[in-house]
């Protein structure tokens, strides 16, 4: 689906979608449990991949009329799947489910689409081997398709921390269901650390204790997953909020604002977008008790942001940098190249098509706002939801309409994104209709 965004002003209130990160973990945790209700979930393409995996392991997932998910779990002992588990485009699913597969008494095969089959999984495979399982890439390159044989009993695994925090989260999830527990020793500095904090917070809500150690992380074995009252409510997603907040900061009507609901404080590292916007000079206010963030259009100035812990914010910050005065320097971003696409190059190239002046280095992306005049253009969404939504933000203030190819990929994390910004006043045309 091609989506055309014309220069627009925005105003009004919008609700952020539920957190993708929390929903993935809640669905899987309910699978590890005897069963649970997940309230206010995001039901997107990626989440459905995790739902299918829970069912492949012997659980069941029913979507209720109120949107909640009633999940019957496999109680810490996944069945050997009767078929290959297709994780589609969901890296979170593949990483979390790979460790779950190591608990099954037999072999599990995991694959995904072309993009997912290019993403690194090797360190997690090595960790499973260290824990007594068998884990291999069918092509011998550390990428899917993967073949996992268990069951693992637990132990200690050494793993790099600078490839994907999801490896650590996966091992903590599975470790609680082993006999011995799992200790994860980090070989390098941990990137995207807040995502492990999310995992620890979510596990705690399901009655599982996981903790940081001097060497990394640990979780005791023999624990049972059971949320209080048999249910868990998913908080709003700050990664998705970032596009709405950015839209308000660059395109709110004079005298108006964009109010984003669902912004209750949590362990989400991407709440850092509020501080980034403040640093750039945005008029922004966060009522934490009410869970509402209000932002007005402001004259933004470039800033320097380290995205080591917040990789998903890079596309949003890059779009803001193309609109701000001065340089916006995004540092510590090499790991952002290993997402659904190489998001560093993707933003550099697609913003460049719109007239942005960008300098791309391996670990740094600099957007030169003073040398940029954004003009409408035809840009590629790269089959990446975050690229699509960030380019839509840039299109709000470009000179002329911007056509984004592959707009349907917002379904991964924010299925009603275009409807939401349309309600805020954005001129949106889908496929020329």
Automatic annotation (TrEMBL):
Pfam families: EPSP_synthase
GO BP term (any one): chorismate biosynthetic process
Domain of life the protein comes from: Archaea
Major subcellular location class: cytoplasm
Compartments reported by the entry: Cytoplasm
Entry EC number(s): 2.5.1.19
UniProt-recorded Gene Ontology molecular function terms: 3-phosphoshikimate 1-carboxyvinyltransferase activity
Residues noted as binding phosphoenolpyruvate in the record, renumbered to the chain: 20, 91, 119, 166, 343, 386
Job of this protein: Catalyzes the transfer of the enolpyruvyl moiety of phosphoenolpyruvate (PEP) to the 5-hydroxyl of shikimate-3-phosphate (S3P) to produce enolpyruvyl shikimate-3-phosphate and inorganic phosphate.
Protein name, entry field: 3-phosphoshikimate 1-carboxyvinyltransferase
Source species of the chain: Natronoarchaeum philippinense
